[in-house]
Amino acid sequence: MKLHWSPRSPFVRKVMIVLHETGQLDEVTLVRSVVAAHLPPNPAVLADNPLGKIPTLLTGDGRALFDSRVICEHLDLRAGGALLPASGPARDAQLRWQALADGLTEILLTWRTEMLRPGGPWPSLTGGWAVKVRAAMACLEAEADTLGRTPFGLGQIAVVCALGQLDFRWADAEWRGHFPRLAALAADWAARPSVAATAVVNDADEGPEPAAGQLRFDAPPAQRP
Ligand SMILES: N[C@@H](CCC(=O)N[C@@H](CS)C(=O)NCC(=O)O)C(=O)O
C-alpha cells in the first residue's frame, strides 16, 4: 500500500495511529505529499483523489481510498475490526465521537487558512468557529469519563488528533487548563505507543504562526455581528 502522507496533517495522523494499533505499518510506503487548501492542488495527489486531499491510500490492488474515515475503517477491517464495533450503540458512539472530533479538526484547519487571507479573516466565520470549538470541547469534557472507559477505537483516535491539532497550532489557547478531565485522558492516551509515535511535527519553517492569539477559552467568544 502507498499513503499520501504528511507529518503535519491531523487527518493523516488518524491513519498512522490505526496502522500502529493494527500492526500494519510495515505494509505501507509513506509518500510525503504537500497540500494546502490555499495553494494550487498537488497534481500527484489529485491523480489519486479528485479532492486533492490527504490522507489518500492506494491499496495493494490499485484502488485509491479517501477520506480518513474510509481509510481507517478499511485498515481496521483488514486487521480484524478491533477499533470499530460491527453494529449497535457501541459502533454509533465511536462514529459519533469521530464525527465530532473530525469536525473540530476541520474547523481548526479552515480557521488557520482563513488567517492567511490578505486583509484578515471574515469575523462572521471566526466568531461562529469560536463558539463551535468551545462547544465541541465542552462536549468532549462532559464525555471524558465515558471516552476513557470505552475500549480505544476510531472515535478516541479522532479525538487524539483533534487535541493534537490544538497543541500543534493553537498552543497558546492552553486548552488543558479549561478542560481538566479531557487533559487527564489525553495524558493517558499519550502513553500509548501509537499516539506517542505519531505526534504531529512541522517539517518546514513557516515563520510566525498566523493563528496565534485567535482562540481563547478563558473569555466568551465575541458575538456574531
Ligand atoms: N475529511 C478529510 C479531510 C482531509 C483534509 O482536509 N486534509 C488536509 C490536510 S490535513 C488537506 O488535504 N488539505 C488540502 C486541501 O484542502 O486542499 C479526511 O478526513 O481525510
What does this structure look like?
- The structure is a single chain.
- The protein has helices at 10-21, 43-46, 68-78, 89-115, 123-142, 144-149, 154-169, 180-190, 193-196; strands at residues 2-5, 29-32, 56-58, 64-65.
- Helix 1 (10-21) packs parallel to helix 3, helix 1 crosses helix 7 and helix 4 (89-115) packs parallel to helix 7 (154-169).
- The longest helix is centred in the middle third of the chain and has 27 residues, at 89-115.
- Strands 2-1-3-4 form a 4-stranded mixed β-sheet.
- By secondary structure, the chain is mainly α.
- The chain has 2 domains: 2-78, Glutaredoxin (3-Layer(aba) Sandwich); 89-196, Glutathione S-transferase Yfyf (Class Pi), Chain A, domain 2 (Up-down Bundle), CATH 1.20.1050.10.
- The chain is built from 9 helices and 4 strands.
- Strand 3 (56-58) and strand 4 form a beta hairpin.
- Residues 9-11, 35-37, 52-55, 67-69, 102, 109 line the site of glutathione.
